[in-house]
Design a protein that fits this description.
mainly alpha
Length: 223
């Protein structure tokens, strides 16, 4: 949207390959996922997401939005697998009387992680833009980097256009995108490995088994 000059509506439509799969994959995969350990489903989802981000890495200034389609399909599939597994695990490790608390804690950490991820990756994105511009121009360009990170390349009267730096700004923008795609891929892969290592079957709550019909039910004794 920012670099190619798309409207918000057009930018949203370009992301539909991932968005649709985020909705359809949980429905289609539910029968198979219910037969597998949740840690395997979560790890697979995160690994596929990492692969999708890695596939999108390597963009150039000549890349159109269609260059993102393979990666969007993979990330949509991975997120569609991971989201239900996160909910299953978050509730499965708590007794039934505390499922509301477990759901609230899980959602809190997910939203906090999202906010922190946007902030941290946004800062990395801006830093990489500034570094790329400094390399191309031979001097720091902090103000221009902030403008580009905020999407100034899509406006004809942008700071970059005013200084005749459109080509350099597009190159810096793509460089920043590639940087955060790579970091995101590494983080998602780390999450996949952590899911395999840290989620254990014994941590899941198992309700006490009901007495067998053949077993006598203990009767209270008189005092």
């Amino acid at each position: 949207q920012d670099n190619l000059g798309y409207s918000p509506l057009a930018g949203g439509l370009c992301l539909l390959p991932a968005t649709i799969l985020c909705f359809l994959v949980p429905l289609a995969a539910r029968p198979a996922a219910s037969k597998l350990p949740p840690r395997i489903v979560l790890s697979a989802g995160l690994a596929i997401t990492a692969l999708g981000l890695a596939v999108m890495h390597g963009l150039t200034v000549r890349s159109g939005w269609t260059a993102l389609i393979p990666g969007l399909l993979l990330t949509g599939t991975g997120i569609g697998l991971a989201n239900p597994a996160i909910a299953t695990i978050g509730l499965g490790v708590a007794p039934p009387q505390r499922t509301g608390m477990a759901s609230g804690i899980s959602n809190t950490f997910r939203v906090a992680g999202l906010a922190a991820g946007v902030a941290v990756l946004g800062a990395v994105f801006e830093r990489q833009i500034a570094s790329s511009l400094a390399t191309q121009l031979g001097h720091p360009a902090g103000q221009l980097a902030k403008a580009l990170a905020a999407g100034a390349t899509r406006a004809p009267t942008s700071l970059a256009a005013q200084h005749g730096l459109t080509a350099a700004s597009h190159h810096a923008f793509v460089s920043g995108m590639n940087e955060i795609l790579l970091i995101g891929s590494i983080l998602a892969l780390s999450g996949a490995l952590a899911a395999l290592a840290l989620i254990r079957a014994r941590d899941f709550y198992r309700p006490a088994a009901a007495p067998s019909p053949s077993e006598p039910v203990p009767q209270p004794t008189a005092a």
